[in-house]
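name: query_chain
kind: protein
chains: 1
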Amino acid sequence: MSLQLYYHPLSSFCWKVLIALYETDTPFTPILVDLGNPTERAALRALWPIGKFPVLRDDARDVVLPESSIIIEYLATHYPGRVPLIPTETDPALRTRLRDRSLDLYVHLPMQKITGDRLRPPVSRDAHGVGEARTQMRTALDMFEAETSDGGWGIGEAFSLADCAAAPALFYADKVLPFRATHPKLAAYLDRLMARPSFARVLEEAQPYFHLFPEEPAASEAS
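structure:
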């Protein structure tokens, strides 16, 4: 296959691209990268020196692309598949991209800050930074709750890039800052996303790895 995706089944940003690939029925070869394996880590860095996934390689066009949003934009242009994930009209496309960036910047990245801090030894944890991340997430979740409709998807009635971004961001956000009791529209939206076949497949494939997700440290460890 022309397309190769370097990824890990537990990575939230990899989920975003996987959802897009499954949603559009785009053929690709998955290449699982264990960052704890020096050989696999070196192979990833040879493609993208930053060493983060997802990374897409397109042999047919001799292209290597990092960053989930850019990968999905590339797929929409060169491998559009059975459904468009980015509207063709200018204003809906801008709203879709804005929702994508807002979810990544104000929910997804703060969530990763919180979970990443859990992997640190107690003496190296960043209580101030985690507190700021929680505050930003709460603000963003409040904003998205107000913007979310009682049905449909992130931007109108069509599943889009915005929903590819929302699925992993909200799924993991609910793990680190549970919002179902306080944000009923977002909770219902997350349920719709989890029932979507593309995301359900991603969750099923990630199931064997969920035990690796860092739990919140005990109060004695966090202090």
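note: The chain has two domains: 3-79, 90-196.
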